[in-house]
Design a protein that fits this description.
The structure is a single chain. This protein has a 3-stranded parallel beta sheet, with helices on both faces. The protein has one domain (about 1-200): Rossmann fold (3-Layer(aba) Sandwich), CATH 3.40.50. Helix 1 (about 1-10) packs across helix 7 (about 105-115) and helix 2 runs antiparallel to helix 6 (about 95-105). Strand 2 (about 120-130), helix 8 (about 140-160) and strand 3 form a beta-alpha-beta unit. The chain is globular. Helix content is about 55%, strand content about 10%. With about 200 residues, the chain is mainly α.
């Protein structure tokens, strides 16, 4: 996640000379979440690990092997024979537990990044998704999802202001998983930042 890259840069400024943020999570986005989203977030963190250990997700996938396709737009890049293994890794109990633990301390990380400040004049590329992957969800109204989408767009706009030498690219046709959906865009952005740094250093 980009938030960790920024935290590293703030703590080790001599080791970072440029950055590419790929549809990065911005530290103020969750402040826009309404009470329904906050409740669902708490429930998800409480239930995902037990569900994974009980094998409920694997049972659901066994009954409907296509259930993964709709939520993972990059899945077509992998052979169909690998889809069950990908699903198994994504919903493995250890993966679910790690995600839940990370989310539980995210508030502390957000606060640290807020205090870290910007990147000065370091070259920065912000790649943002064109497609908002979430279009609805259980318990959330269309208006609530629209508010979350707007919060995401506002967060991307704030990332652009982290550096005086920043450019943003909206990656056409891509959702959040840009490295898997449009990997060439990430490679190009990294190369461009490297060229800028090389030119700066002579």
């Amino acid at each position: 996640m980009g938030i960790y890259a920024r935290l590293f840069a703030s703590r080790h400024p001599d080791e970072v000379v440029g950055m590419v943020l790929v549809d990065a999570f911005e530290e103020n986005i969750r402040r826009a979440y309404g009470p329904t989203m906050q409740r669902l977030d708490r429930q998800a963190r409480r239930l995902t690990v037990p569900f994974a250990w009980l094998g409920i997700m694997r049972i659901m996938f066994g009954r409907n092997p296509t259930m993964l396709t709709g939520g993972v737009p990059w899945l077509h890049r992998f052979p169909a024979a690998l889809h069950p293994a990908i699903f198994g890794l994504m919903y493995h109990p250890h993966m679910m537990r790690a995600g839940s633990q990370e989310w539980a301390v995210l508030g502390d990380v957000e606060e640290q990044v807020r205090s870290a400040g910007g990147l000065g004049d370091q070259p920065l590329a912000v790649l943002s998704s064109e497609r908002f992957d979430q279009v609805g969800g259980p318990g959330l109204s269309a208006a609530e999802w629209a508010a979350i989408q707007q919060a995401n767009e506002d967060g991307q706009a704030r990332l652009i202001r982290l550096s005086t030498r920043c450019r943003q690219q909206i990656v056409e046709g891509s959702g959040h998983w840009i490295p898997l959906e449009q990997p060439e865009a990430v490679v190009a952005a990294i190369r461009q930042i490297a060229l800028e740094i090389a030119a700066q250093n002579g």
